[in-house]
Amino acid sequence: MAAKPFASSTDLGEKTETLEVLADGVYALTAEGDPNVGAIEGEDFLVAFEARATPVAARDWLDKLREHTDKPVKYLVLSHYHAVRVLGASAFDVEVIIAHDNTWKLIKERGKQDWDSEFGRMPRLFREPDTIPGLTWPEVTFSDSMTIDLGGARGKLVLQYCGRGHTAGDIVAWLPRQKVLFAGDLVEAEAALYTGDAFHTDWSTGTLDRVKAFGAEALVGGRGAVPRGREAVDAAIEQTRSFLLVMREKVGAVHARGGSLKEAFEATHQALAPKFGAWPIFEHCLPFDVQRVWDELDGIDWPRIWTAERDREVWDELQG
Ligand SMILES: [Zn+2]
Prior knowledge:
The protein is an alpha/beta fold. It has eight helices and twelve strands. A seven-stranded mixed sheet has the order 1-2-3-4-5-6-7. Strands 8-9-10-11-12 form a five-stranded mixed sheet, with helices on one face. α5 crosses α7. The protein is globular and about 60 Å long. The N and C termini lie close together (10 Å). The mean pLDDT is 96. The structure holds zinc ion (ZN). Residues 80, 82, 166, 185, 194 line the site of zinc ion (ZN).
């Protein structure tokens, strides 16, 4: 069998982007499994959620948003540190960039390596990469929660840390009045999970429990369509949890019997492929995911840094 192409390096087909209005002044842009972004209207300003991989890609999203509102973007909220979510930040020309304390720490610790790693894995998302001015630095960070008053009768936007999950610093954005939750990469709707920097036990238990407890009526996940209605929202959360639990179980069993990483990868692939194999980025993510579960079982609490070189080593060992 021919070796699989590295990560998403040969995924070059353009995706169709759809701007959805989820409630009055609440927007999401989904893109057939590419990273989602969102925006929330205040009385006289906008809050943007996620920034995309480059300023050019971000500007394209802003152009679509401008068909609905011309209010200035005052706040940019970053759900976590991953390059494809943050490096387009300069396009928004915002007053304040907001993220979790740990996101700032992770950018400082590994921002540059993560940029190189993600560029190699998903080159298509990095449209005109030379327009990226440098790393994105959040100016306001918090450890638990933060609230933005949207003004008028629009209610408030609650930014909340729900525990360690997809990374050490994921936050969600919750609109209690409109019951819309922007969950970042903590929840994926019919897209595979990337867990290479994750905390599988925390994520699959308390963190997802907290996400579910909002009782959202619409949820914008990191990738995939927007589930609407309580049942569809809960299904997306539980599907995310089941992906994590299967990985913990399969990798855990091989690790416990003293098997190899490759065996753990094959067992996990076999278990997940029937349900999740056709979803976006499944083959891309799985080697990195299994390696991280393995590391956790080895007692490595803080995720090791992915570099372009380490990406290739793990890929060649597991998918090669
Ligand atoms: Zn991510």
